[in-house]
Amino acid sequence: MDVSWEDFGWERLADGVGRRRLPVWDATAAVVVGDDAVLLYDTGATLREGAELRTQIQSLLGGRRVTHIALSHPHFDHVFGTAAFSGARVYGAVGTDQLMGLARERDALRDDAISQGVAPAEATQAADVLVAPRHVVSGEWTLDLGGRQVLLANVGPGHTGHDLVVLVPGTAGGPGVVLCGDLVEESGEPQAGPDAIPARWPAALDRLLSLGGDDALYVPGHGAVVDAAFVRAQRDELARRFGVS
C-alpha cells in the first residue's frame, strides 16, 4: 500500500496515509488509501488547486482516483477544489449541506476568497460550482476503504459550527493519525472568525483528544504535524482567551 510520497511533494504520515501542505495558506490536504477506495480530506482553495491535487494523487497512486471526500469545515481554502473530483462521495458535518447550498453562503465564500487574494474570476468560478456534502455526519461515521477503516467524527462546533475530523487508526507499525482541520493550527494562532463558536471550542478539542489519545499524530488544518501535548496546550490557551473552562 505504501508509496514514495516525498517524490510527489507529499509528507508520509503512516502506511497509506499522506498529506500535502498547499501553498499560500499552508492548508492541509490529506489522503488515506485503502484497497478499494481513496479518501481525500479537504480539496484546496480553487478549482485549479483541486485539479492539481487530483492529478498528483492519480500519479501517486498509479491512476487510482479519489472516491470519497471529507470536508473539515466550510471555508474556501478547504472546499473550493471539490468540484474537480467528479463522482466522489462528499461528507461533511451535519448542517454543512444546507449551509453550502445557500446562495448567500456561496457569495460569502467567494468574497472571503477574493479578500484573501484569490483572483476574482477563480473565486467566482469555484463558488458557482461549489459542491455541498450529500452525506452528513451528526456523530460518528465509519468508512470502510477496503483493508482499513477510518472514522469520521463531528466533534464541533468550535472553529466553525460544522467541524469534521478524521481518525485513521494506528497499525502495528505506527501510530494513529487524526486529521483535525482548523480546530488545530500550528503555523499561526487559531483563527476565530464570525462563524466560530468560541465557548464550545475547548470541548471540541477534548473530544478530538479522546479520539486520538496520547500517541496519535495530530495534523492541523495549517502547519506542521503536532502531538497531543500541543493540542492540549492550544486547548488551554483557547479556554483562557475565550474565558471558558
Structural write-up:
The protein is α/β, with parallel strands linked by helices and 245 residues long. It is 29% helix and 25% strand. The chain contains seven helices and twelve strands. The strands form two sheets. Strands 1-2-3-4-5-6-7 form a seven-stranded mixed beta sheet, with no helix packed on it. Strands 8-9-10-11-12 form a five-stranded mixed beta sheet, covered by helices on one side. α4 packs antiparallel against α5. The longest helix is centred in the C-terminal third of the chain and has 15 residues, at 228-242.
Can you tag this structure with a few keywords?
alpha/beta; seven-stranded mixed sheet; 245 residues; 12 strands; five-stranded mixed sheet
Share of helical residues: 25-40%
**Average pLDDT:** 95
Roughly how many Å is the radius of gyration? 17 Å
Please report the distance between the alpha carbons of the first and last residues.
43 Å
Strand fraction band? 15-25%
| Number of E-state strands | 12
Label the overall shape. globular
Q: List the secondary-structure elements in sequence, H or E.
A: EEEEHEHEHHHEEEEEHEH
Question: What's the SSE blueprint?
Answer:
Layout: E1 11-14, E2 17-21, E3 28-33, E4 38-41, H1 47-60, E5 68-70, H2 76-79, E6 89-93, H3 96-100, H4 103-115, H5 120-128, E7 135-137, E8 140-144, E9 149-154, E10 164-168, E11 177-185, H6 201-212, E12 217-222, H7 228-242
Parallel strand pairs: 4-5, 5-6, 6-7, 11-12
Antiparallel strand pairs: 1-2, 2-3, 3-4, 8-9, 9-10, 10-11
Helix pairs in contact: 4-5, 6-7
